[in-house]
Each structure stands twice: as structure tokens, then as C-alpha cells.
Amino acid sequence: MKIKSLSYITIESTDISEWEAYAKNVVGLMKNEDMSDENNLFLRMDESPFRFQVFKGSENKYSKGGFEVASKEDFEDAKKQLQDLNISFQEEGEDLAKVRCVKELISFNDPGGNSLELFYGRDIDKNEFKSSQDISGFVTHGLGLGHLVFGTLEAEAAHDFYTQVMEFGDSDIMRMRFTPDPNDPESVIYFMHCDNPRHHTVGIMLAPTPPSGLIHAMVEVETAEQVVDAMDRATSNNIHISSTLGRHMNDKMFSFYMQTPAGFMLEFGYDGIQPDWDVHETTNSEAPSYWGHEFNMPEA
């Protein structure tokens, strides 16, 4: 199975207008006016019809991640591989394919219970992308939306699934304690890449799955100034800053974290490395960051 990129995510929301304001006033995304309606908000980052779909529901949480393969042949190969491994999947119909702006897609779950969609043939939007803020562009070309980090107590099984079934590669494995207490059990985070240069597209953390369904998603911009500007916009719009600015150790990303209306965090970053996978060796980071990234989670 050859995964090209993370193409989109879907999010359930009790108040779509809250997401629309957040996307416009803070993140700098563009609403797809042609696709959106009172029950669905489609948000653009680039030439794709959407990267985020927010749909009306009874909860506020992450819903699904859409992963792309390059061709019909790769799509059929992926289905055969799942069948050979006795991994059940759902063949989705033309109606959902039209909503997702793809040729064909299937859906299935990873061992942590996260719902995934796999597809080929993404549409290109004829209308130029224009950020709702002064953002020159999001770093997506050939790399996809960004990355996702999940929490699960089935971390080993999930890691095996992504590396052995989805055929991701290990970029970095981080083992750490989150408090100075030596009796605090050690956790592990697996950072994995697919078939593009982004350092990691999926992270799996040994931790309970949060109510939001996701620990964080990441989007990347082209300059450090745009990161700082986004942090200022978040503050002025009363968005909780979950982490101060910092520089990550494994992917070298300069970023901060903020809360989303769905309850998971959004990492807003710049300058992530793009390794050459032919020569890259899996690293074992000793800490999350060189500096900064002091977390201050909101009260439940």
C-alpha cells in the first residue's frame, strides 16, 4: 500500500458558525462557498476543493482522515491487501465520493478505533485560493494537509497497523515521561511518514483517546512571521493558546498550539524538515522540543 498523503479531515460540530469564525479570523482558511451549506462547511488551504469538512452533529470532535493513493491501480492493490489481511472495509458509493471530490473511496478503522478513508483521484478547484488572512500560502504541495497525532492505549497495535498495513515508515520514536516523577509510567510516541517528504503524517501516542478523538492536527505556513501573526490572531479572538512558541526536536518545526472548537489542538507551524527517506535513519528524540512549547491545557 502506497499512501501519497493525508488529503483531508472531517470534523463534527454542534455549531458550524463557530468553526467558520475560527477558520476565517484565526487560521486563515478560505470557505468554499459553492460546496458549503447550513449543515456543512468546506474549508480550503490550496487548490483542493477542501482540506477540512465540518459537518453538523451532536458532538464536537474529530471524525475521519482521508488518505490518498496515486492511482486506480494503487487503490485496487490497497483493497486487495486489506482483503488478504482479513481487514474489513466499506466500499463507499458515488454520493460520498462526490462529496469528498474523489473518484472512489473505501473506509475502515485502525486498531485505535480511528476512522480512515482511502481514495484516489482528487478534484482540483478551478477558483484561486485566497487566504482570509495575510497568509502567502500553506505548505501542502506534494505533502498533503499536514499531520495528525492520535492517542490510544493500543499504541503498539496501531503502530504495527500503520507500518505493516499502511506501509508508513518510522521517522522518529520518542519515549518520555511527562512529569519529573520517576514512578510516572513512560509513554511513547511513534512519528510515521508516508510516501512524501513531510517528516511525519501520522503520530501515535500511548495515551487514552481524548474525547475530541484527536490530540492535534498540524498545518504549516511559509514564514515564521505568519506563525506569530496567527498566534496574535488567536489571542485577540480569545482562543486558548495550548502551547507557547517553540522548536520541535524531531521535525524542527517552529510552531505554537491552540485549541479548536472541536476540542483538539491545532499546531500552526513553519520550517519543518523534509528528509530524504533513502538515507534517513529513524531517530529517537530525547525530548519534544529544543526550546519553548510550554503546554497549558484548558480546564475540562
Automatic annotation (TrEMBL):
Sequence similarity: Belongs to the extradiol ring-cleavage dioxygenase family.
UniProt cross-references to CDD domains, sorted A to Z: BphC1-RGP6_C_like (cd07237), BphC1-RGP6_N_like (cd07252)
Domain VOC intervals: 5-121, 144-271
Gene Ontology molecular function: any one: ferrous iron binding
Coiled coil: none
Listed cofactors: Fe(2+)
SUPFAM superfamilies tied to this protein: Glyoxalase/Bleomycin resistance protein/Dihydroxybiphenyl dioxygenase
Name assigned to this protein: VOC family protein
Keywords of this entry: Aromatic hydrocarbons catabolism, Dioxygenase, Iron, Metal-binding, Oxidoreductase
Lineage: Bacteria, Pseudomonadati, Pseudomonadota, Gammaproteobacteria, SAR86 cluster
InterPro entries named among the record's database cross-references: Glyas_Bleomycin-R_OHBP_Dase, Glyas_Fos-R_dOase_dom, VOC_core, Xdiol_ring_cleave_dOase_1/2
Organism: SAR86 cluster bacterium
Superkingdom, natural source: Bacteria
